[in-house]
Amino acid sequence: MSAKNITIPQNENILNQVAGFRDAINKKHELEASGTDFTEQRGQVRKSVEGLHPKRLNLRVSEIVTDTRSTKTLRLVSTDGRRLPPFQAGQYVNLFVTVQGTATARPYAISSSPSNLEYYDLTVKKLDTGFVSIYLVDEVTVGQEFQSTGPMGTFHYNPLFHGDDLVFLAGGSGIAPAISMLRIILDRKQSLRFHFVYNNSLEDDVIFAQELRAIAAEHDNFTLTELVSRPTSQYEGLRGHVSLELLQELLPNAERKMYYICGPTPFNDHCLALLAQMNVRSRRILVEGNGPPRNPDELPGWPAEASVKDTVNISVRGGGEFTATVGEPLLNSLERNGYGTENACRSGECSLCRVKVRSGKVYNPPEALIRKSDKRFGWVHSCVAFPVSDVEIQI
Ligand code: FES
Fold it and tell me: What is the Å distance from ligand 1's center to 254 Cα?
């Protein structure tokens, strides 16, 4: 195809907000000016795509900031000193780590702005029952190196479909994608309204508190509502959880706005139920998955005879077997026993961690987005799959 046949999009203003679009248009103009035939560029496209969407990134911790008593932000730069690939605010990278001899990975939303690709910030909250989060917060030091996937995920603002009135409902460390969105809105001086409702357990848990409050004071298009569910007696702000009354008061014309929800799974489910009561259509809501369910035995369809404390035998076709706890996601027990499989979201969405169940029973929660054909042939998403009997699997 010659350069003359390429149509310049009519509405460049909207597309300018898409990462990489401006670079692509500039390159096209440059090639047109030099009379280049695009067929001569064969191979370059693949190279460009791989540059923008690399499978793996090599990263080094350049700085660590303590945000709260349980949260730190790790600033990661490329080990080769180059700029990192562009991303959409709200996307995550899956960070590969080895903790206590187990090679595993966890997805973390990038909290820095996509306008600065010198680094990615990952904001990590230490969970009481955590494995990787405790390691990242307590043990990682500046200079340490990691691999990650490239930026991934569909939880981000889409300028073509999401309108200009955005609401973000966040719980705890669910603020990470929200602050990235807010930062890019400010960096690009976008004329978007951004309502941020932020729920935490304790007032000391509020991440980026000063930055949020300063932005709210300075920008009319940003509204901040903070809630603390277990405050001290001195706390003077709003108490409790996100409620129907609160959302109705904060959000007139609720059904016309675009919603992003990110927090622990019970928080996400609670917010979804409230928005349904407010007649918000599901296409106006994006929810970010947040790892496997902590209490799978409380979910619909869990077999009554199975206890999360039971142990079962997992045999892997082609060699090896091990004992696993029913209440632990299959991917975690596979990793603990030295069986790696590709993975990214660890929330049942991306399907990279698929394994085939040859025999036995595995419980998949409703959040596992398994394709019909996969269901038919026994494939499960191992990151959210729980073996409720002895099983044989194929990786
Ligand atoms: S890692 Fe994405 S579905 Fe399991």
Answer: 32
Q: What Å distances lie between residue 8 and 24, 28, 202, CA to CA?
A: 11, 10, 51
What pLDDT score was predicted for residue 4?
43
Q: At residue 119, what are phi and psi to the nearest 5 degrees?
A: -155, 160
Mean pLDDT of 103-128: 96
pLDDT in tens, 305-343: 999 999 999 999 988 999 999 999 999 999 999 998 899
Q: H-type helices in the chain, by residue range?
A: 12-15, 21-33, 44-52, 132-138, 175-187, 209-218, 244-250, 265-277, 330-336, 372-376
- Global pTM reads 0.84
Q: Tokens 């706890």 belong to which residue? A: 325
> Is any ligand 1 atom within 6 A of the Cβ of residue 353?
yes
How far does residue 96's CA lie from ligand 1's centre (Å)? 14
Answer for the pair 297, 328: CB distance below 8 angstroms, yes or no.
no
User: 57-148 architecture in CATH?
Assistant: Beta Barrel (2.40)
Extract the tokens encoding 232.
């001290």
Please report the DSSP string for 9-38 in residue order: PS-HHHHTTSTTHHHHHHHHHHHHHTT--G
pLDDT digits (tens, 9 = 90+) for 64-98: 999 999 999 999 999 999 999 999 999 999 999 99
* Cα–ligand 1 centroid distance for 356 (angstroms): 14
> Fold for domain 296-394?
Ubiquitin-like (UB roll) (3.10.20)
Tell me the C-alpha distance between 340 and 32, whole Å. 47
Q: Which fold has domain 165-287?
A: Rossmann fold (3.40.50)
User: How is the chain split into domains, by residue range?
Assistant: 3-52, 57-148, 165-287, 296-394
156 ligand 1 Cβ < 6 A = no
Ligand 1 test: best mutation among 93, 335, 346, 374, most atoms within 8 Å of CB? 346
Tell me, yes or no, if the two domains 57-148 and 296-394 fold the same way.
Answer: no
